[in-house]
Amino acid sequence: DAEITQSPRHKITETGRQVTLACHQTWNHNNMFWYRQDLGHGLRLIHYSYGVQDTNKGEVSDGYSVSRSNTEDLPLTLESAASSQTSVYFCASSESSGGATDTQYFGPGTRLTVL
Amino acid sequence: KQEVTQIPAALSVPEGENLVLNCSFTDSAIYNLQWFRQDPGKGLTSLLLIQSSQREQTSGRLNASLDKSSGRSTLYIAASQPGDSATYLCAVKKENYGGATNKLIFGTGTLLAVQP
Questions:
Q1: Burial class (CB in 10 A: 0-12, 13-18, 19+), B83
Q2: DSSP reduced 3-state for B50
Q3: Phi, psi torsion values for A83, nearest 5 degrees
Q4: ω into A8 cis (within 30 of 0)
Q5: Which positions in chain B touch A8 (Cβ < 8 Å)?
Q6: Are B48 and B35 in contact (CB under 8 A)?
Q7: Cross-chain residue pair A106–B45, CB shorter than 8 Å
Q8: How far apart are CA A46 and CA A63, in angstroms?
Q9: Coil, strand, or helix at residue A24?
Q10: pLDDT tens-digit profile of B48-59?
Q11: Is B43's Cβ below 8 Å from some Cβ in A?
Q12: What was the pLDDT predicted at A100?
């Protein structure tokens, strides 16, 4: 069955370190998204991609970057981790370009703690 | 700027009760609205999707309604069960120049506990 996976599931790091969170989907979806979820804020969009070599900034992109070299993967990099980036990170993918019925499929999340 | 609000933030009900979760949004220019379920430590699972031209969608014991003009949606859960305990989030897909974007805007969720 097609799926979307994230690794690691839990990560503890120190302030200032570079961290990369992996996201891999086997749906062959063109669209991929990264969100962070914080208490009181719901899910907020960090970056998204509509295809290989395409990346776009979302609502809370400062301090994060992504690159899309193939259809299956969209890694999220924290260039210099800050305590404010302690959060749960979700990756999602969807098939079409803004169709009325397409939905996003979510990974299980990565819990990141920055000390 | 589109804002999505969910009330209540938390709800506890006895098993068997019918319940309603509320979602409101500030900009009626939406393409669709979705309800998701999130179990602790897990990702989100889509429950129901209502297109902007639709009034409601049903799946089993779940019924979601949409009133675009008033900026409201409700998720009705009939005969609640302990297995329904989870966080329920609504999300709207923005309309952009007559089409749609791919971006979802989420509410903060309602944490539901169904007591056996």
A1: exposed
A2: strand
A3: -60, -30
A4: yes
A5: none
A6: yes
A7: yes
A8: 10
A9: strand
A10: 999 989 999 999
A11: yes
A12: 67
